[in-house]
């Protein structure tokens, strides 16, 4: 059951109500995510699963609490890093010790924060020419996974326009507007702009003021963003503290509700293998060499022991992790072999 959730085992403590709350949540998840209870669980097993589920659910719950705190205002306030949904909040100065909405915020860049909702229609983002200045606009889905990061390193510093679209949106965008598809309808753009000390604030403010967020239906019009609704019931306490105060039932109930609009990422691995190493039953060549096959389809039954499946489509990244490396790996004498692309 733990493996179905794609979790790694960690030890920890959890409130005694967790097993019951976890069972309630699992029964409320979409059918594809429901595990099969093949046997009765002991209290220790149920508690361990509850801990694993808590760790898995935590990013989704904390992101949603952060969204509530960061959008609970009538108009944009850079000083509070708060703005209504689909509107930018441009932070005018470096954060100090009183800023608690983000854990360990940058203290050498100015933020441009935008919570987006593209469940009904795309949101068009216009970025001015930064004149060579470094910036990045990382976008997180509701699971806190970065799915795109326009900026100097990835897309350059010239003027650009793109539209954030929902996971199921189909349609055509205006000419010159690139598509960025979000895996979830709700998400967070946490823009950061290089700021060379306080004397540089004015120049960064000029760049920030050129960032625009306009619904697709209003693109090309004299758009005036609407005022937000303030909910007095929403706490202004730091999101991590709010999550920590939730009991098991409240935490998992919120998680279950959120998964209806932001379901867990699908398991895109035909043999459920995400790592390969010396503890696996690898087959060596006659000369003692090792060939690892990184591809979507099986390389053949006789080679599957050395197969690390790749995603069905899209880009992916790989990491080589060495435990207790020898000096040659640290001083550069030994270099890992390069990945060789064999065919399209």
Polypeptide structure, described:
The protein has helices spanning 18-28, 43-71, 152-155, 201-209, 239-245, 248-261, 327-331, and strands at 88-90, 109-117, 123-127, 135-136, 139-141, 146-148, 160-165, 178-181, 186-194, 212-215, 293-295, 307-309. The chain is an alpha+beta fold and 344 residues long. It has three domains: 3-68 and 240-261, no CATH class; 73-230, Immunoglobulin-like, CATH 2.60.40.1610; 268-344, no CATH class. The strands form three sheets. Strands 1, 2, 4, 5, 6 and 9 form a six-stranded antiparallel beta sheet that branches. The model is unreliable at 1-35 (pLDDT under 50).
Shape: globular
| Helix proportion range | 10-25%
Uncertain runs are 1-35
Percentage of residues in DSSP E strands: 15-25%
Main sheet attributes: strand count, strand direction, barrel closure: 6 strands, antiparallel
Helix/strand/pairing category: alpha+beta
Number of strands: 12
CATH class of the largest domain: Mainly Beta
CATH architecture of the largest domain: Sandwich
The number of domains is 3
* Annotated CATH topology of the largest domain: Immunoglobulin-like
Please tell me how large the radius of gyration is.
24 Å
Distance between the termini: 36 Å
State mean pLDDT (0 to 100 scale). 86
